[in-house]
Design brief:
- There is one protein chain.
- 68% of the residues lie in helices and 1% in strands.
- The chain is mostly helical.
- The strands form 2 sheets. Strands 1-2 form a two-stranded parallel sheet.
- Strand 1, helix 7 and strand 2 (200-201) form a beta-alpha-beta unit.
- Helix 13 crosses helix 19.
- It is globular and about 85 Å long.
Length: 617
């Protein structure tokens, strides 16, 4: 019996050894095949089945399409007009050089190196700051709930353009008031006769009274604007079909949506410059009012415009870069290309809108460009359309312009929805059963939910709700989140380490200027803006209407939902770590990434050596 058991034990031992050899060989074979298919192992020991861009140009076009969006044609002119014209440009370009460009490179590097969306990326870079990633996605989610309303407005205008006479070209409609003054009225003036004072442009009345059905304040939300609700549904259907197949379908869509707007903007600029009064509008845009540089709100708006337009602190750029090949060598060049394209487009769009503002001031006999129309998020819909009646075949140009706005809006909107979807798939992989592991179904869930959240914005008092959401989401929250993002990477993960990570991916370290910005300049400038904006706090307004206290409290609640993710994430990281409180705190401050091991997994796929000389920094 003992001999039998001994023989059985030897046999089992040999079978075990044989199985171990087969299993090891099998893992090596699977690993080799995975690398050949661009499916590389991650730090979690699973295979990286992350989608890849079909072509490098798709990544560039998607990022340009996201950065060059409604933020350039809609938000930039609105903030520039609100901040006194040329006074806005000085802090804007300073923020671009010190914060915008360095932080976009930071996000590209994080996404491409870590290969996760914003939540997963920050959880690995510095666990105690994983709430920063959650905050970016939370803010992006809030933005998706109302951003599509702008596209809905554009769709409404597009349908309205298919008429024999553009409805905002005259004052002969039921929604017009006695103060209305149009281009037709200007043409009927006798030689030397001045237009009456205190008039309102026909395009402004069309937007407020016909499109919005605007009430007197947020206290009176009024009824539903059913036409706008239908337009909002169409906007979400368009977004869904842009993204339902993932980054591959997004990459193809942007060939049209990112390139078409430039043709139309140049055409409108040439037309705008020929209008009477255009020169005065351009002067207002480029000549700063120096006293406004002492206003902290102007600096806060300039910082917010950089972050909103480029997409910093929203998680989108991290998510897009995570779909790049690990050894993509052009992230610095991509960063500069996107930032400068974005800024030049903003200048182009503002040149158009301020030339038309000068024209409106001329026909209304306004004492100042700054008093022509009510500053607010609807500025683009009140100013651009005023130029169309002066053009040959105005209906054609109106149709092309609003198609352009829809294209710009879709670029940004499907980018933000993609961030939400990427976060869900990265952070909650066990939720796959809810959508049967199909991207199309998950995209439908997100689009339907954000559509329902946007319904208050298409009510008669919706413009007030829209302005409240936009101000506290994209002006207030973004500064706080950007500050903690650069602190997490520049100080705790170490800006010099990120520079070495860039070398591991591209073969060249990041310029020392970027390291200084990540560690010193950007944090200090952001901190100063946050402090002075709190000290010099101003309540949000829309066209002279001041919000009640309860509405401001609601706005701050919206802002704090995203900001609160940062301390909540820090507490969760410490509580879930192991050891004593001191050990947990120290563990939460350390990255979970092993640079050399992580980069070495991609060497077979064309990457650069993970070995570097730390003495060079």
């Amino acid at each position: 019996m003992k001999a039998y058991l001994g023989t059985l034990d030897v046999l089992l031992h040999r079978v075990s050894n044989l199985w171990r050899v087969i299993n090891t060989h099998s893992r090596r074979t699977v690993s080799t095949r995975a690398r050949s298919m661009n499916q590389l192992s991650t730090d979690d020991g699973v295979v990286d089945n992350r989608q890849r861009w079909d072509k490098k140009s798709h990544f560039i076009l998607v990022c340009v399409g996201y950065a060059v969006g409604l933020g350039n044609v809609w938000r930039f002119p609105y903030l520039c007009y609100l901040s006194g014209g040329g006074a806005f440009l000085i802090p804007y370009f300073l923020m671009l050089v010190v914060c915008g460009i360095p932080m976009l490179l930071l996000e590209f590097a994080i996404g491409q190196f870590v290969r996760y969306g914003p939540v997963g990326a920050f959880a690995r870079i510095c666990p105690i700051f994983k709430g920063v990633g959650v905050a970016t996605v939370t803010m992006t989610f809030f933005l998706t709930t109302y951003y599509n309303v702008i596209i809905a407005w554009a769709i409404f205008y597009l349908f309205s353009s298919f008429q024999s006479e553009l409805p905002w070209a005259s004052c002969n409609h039921t929604w017009n008031t006695e103060d209305c003054f149009s281009h037709e009225d200007y043409d009927e003036l006798e030689e030397g006769e001045l237009p009456p004072n205190s008039t309102v442009s026909a395009s402004e009345e069309f937007f407020h009274h016909r499109v919005l059905g605007k009430t007197e304040g947020i206290e009176d939300m009024g009824g539903m604007r059913w036409e706008l609700l239908g337009c909002l549904a169409l906007a979400y259907i368009a977004v869904y079909f842009c993204i339902f197949k993932g980054v591959k379908s997004s990459g193809r869509v942007v060939y049209v949506t990112a390139l078409f707007p430039y043709f139309l903007l140049v055409t409108l600029m040439v037309t705008g410059f020929t209008l009477p009064g255009a020169f005065e509008g351009i002067k207002f845009f480029f000549l700063p009012k120096w006293e406004l540089l002492l206003d902290a709100q102007v600096w806060k708006a300039a910082a917010a415009q950089n972050f909103n337009s480029i997409g910093i602190a929203f998680g989108s750029m991290i998510a897009f870069a995570s779909f790049n090949d690990f050894h993509n060598k052009s992230i610095v060049r991509d960063t500069l290309t996107i930032c400068f394209t974005n800024s030049l487009t903003s200048i182009l769009a503002c040149s158009v809108i301020f030339s038309v503002l000068g024209y409106i001031a001329e026909i209304q006999n306004a004492p100042s460009i700054g008093e022509v129309v009510a500053s607010g998020p609807g500025l683009v819909f009140m100013v651009y359309p005023a130029a169309f009646p002066t053009m040959v075949v105005p209906q054609l140009w109106a149709v092309l312009f609003f198609i352009m706005l829809i294209c710009l809006g879709l670029d940004s909107q499907f980018a933000m929805v993609e961030v939400v979807i990427t976060t869900i798939t990265d952070t909650f992989p066990h939720w796959k059963y809810l959508y049967w592991d199909r991207k199309e179904i998950l995209a439908a869930y997100v689009c339907i939910f954000t559509f329902l959240c946007g319904i208050p914005c298409v009510m008669e008092g919706g413009i007030y709700f829209f302005q409240l959401m936009d101000w506290y989401t994209c002006i207030v929250s973004v500064g706080f989140i950007a500050f903690f993002e650069v602190i997490a990477v520049g100080w705790f993960y170490d800006a010099r380490r990120l520079s070495r990570n860039i070398q591991q991916m591209t073969g060249v370290r990041a310029n020392y200027y970027f390291v200084v910005c990540w560690m010193v300049l950007a944090p200090l400038l952001l901190l100063a803006i946050l402090i002075f904006s709190i000290v010099d706090y101003e309540v949000v307004e829309y066209g002279g209407y001041s919000y009640p206290a309860w509405a401001e409290c609601f706005g701050w609640l919206i802002a704090l939902v995203s900001i609160a993710c940062i301390p909540v994430g820090a507490i969760h990281a410490v509580m879930t770590a192991k050891g004593s409180l001191r050990e947990r705190l120290i563990s939460s401050l350390k990255t979970t990434l092993d640079d050399e091991r992580h980069a070495a997994k991609f060497m077979a796929d064309g990457g650069y050596s993970a070995v570097y000389d730390q003495s060079k920094f």
